[in-house]
Amino acid sequence: VTAPLKVAVTGAAGQIGYSLLFRIASGAIAGDRPVELRLLEIEPALKALEGVVMELDDCAFPNLAGIEIGHEPEKIFDGVNLALLVGARPRGPGMERGDLLSANGAIFTAQGKALNAVAADDVRIGVTGNPANTNALIALKNAPDIPSERFSALTRLDHNRAISQLAAKTGAAVTDIKKVTIWGNHSATQYPDLFHAEIGGKNAAEVVGDQAWVEDYFIPTVAKRGAAIIDARGSSSAASAASATCDAARDWLNGSPAGDWVSMAVVSDGSYGVPEGLVSSFPVTTSGGNWEIVQGLEIDDFSRARIDASTAELAEERDAVTELGLI
Ligand code: NAX
User: Of 174, 188, 220, 223, which is most buried, counting CB atoms within 10 Å of its CB?
Assistant: First the structure.
């Protein structure tokens, strides 16, 4: 009998949580392996979370082996193999960038320390809560006994959005589109790169054959999709963010498909001139729970300028949280 995969989800009573928990419980990450959910929320949200747990119970998911909820990270993270850090402090009215970074700093320093103390030896940590890259950096710096490679921030939603835009433009099936890359920060400065992507085995930029579309439509549409969804729906993307969170965790634990790669924000080793130590999005392949940055891609001036702009923003965020004493 395989032991259940213990999966922690923070911000479990939030919008993303309301999609994510049901996807995880029905096997989107672990397949047929049983999962145990360990759900963290702040105290005032625990009652709402109890309601979500009632609904999870009512689904009678065959592979849901148990659910624990609470507001103390040291209890909830105990023995977890996978921690999905979704809960974060959104920017409120009148809040400055510095206020946002310190509010989230408090959350991610505490959660990093708790993971360091009680998570399973094989733990993998995926950060969805924004500012995701910098929150991941804060968590990993506060978890000195966990290898930094075990932390990543979510850019898979951006990656999936890029695939969807390419499919719409070319009429190709999403399954024919490979090797899309998101570089940099999960923010409006991100660089969705289709110059190394393939559509049905052919270079995507050549299939599209329209540089103006790439510059004036594709890149900004992917980078600003979050805002477009807020405009249309009145709240931020949630089901798609949950789906991407599952995709990212599933591929990390089980391996990325042959002949393709995925985008993940991981700690830079200096590849492609991204300053070492920043949590930045790269093209990666995964296998056996480990990731590797795809090497040897040619970066032309167009791509270089965009990667540099996004990583400069990440360096600024790192400097700001360093000044705040969070890392
Ligand atoms: P919600 O505000 O609906 O839910 C967040 C939940 O986190 C709330 O229930 C809150 O009580 C909880 N929370 C706050 N502090 C906590 C703490 N210290 N411990 C545990 N729980 C805590 O937000 P939702 O729409 O679910 O989005 C969650 C986060 O994902 C936000 O930061 C959002 O910006 C981010 N996103 C990231 C995306 C990505 O691609 N990386 C895309 C979607 C989303 O915008």
Answer: 223
Q: Is the separation of the CB atoms in 156 and 245 below 8 Å?
A: yes
Same domain for 15 and 149: yes
Same domain? For 143 and 194 the reply is: no
Total residue length of the chain: 327
* CA–centroid distance, residue 293 to ligand 1 (Å): 28
Number of domains composing the chain: 2
- 14 belongs to an annotated ligand binding site: yes
Q: Answer with the one of 153, 179, 202 that is the final residue of a domain.
A: 153
pLDDT, tens digit (0-9, with 9 covering 90-100), for 1-29: 789 999 999 999 999 999 999 999 999 99
33 lies in which domain range? 5-153
pTM of the entire predicted model: 0.98
Q: What is the domain-level CATH number for residue 191?
A: 3.90.110.10
The reply to whether 323 falls in a domain is no
- pLDDT per position as a tens digit, 296-319: 999 999 999 999 999 999 999 999
**ipTM value greater than 0.85:** yes
Active site residue ranges: 186
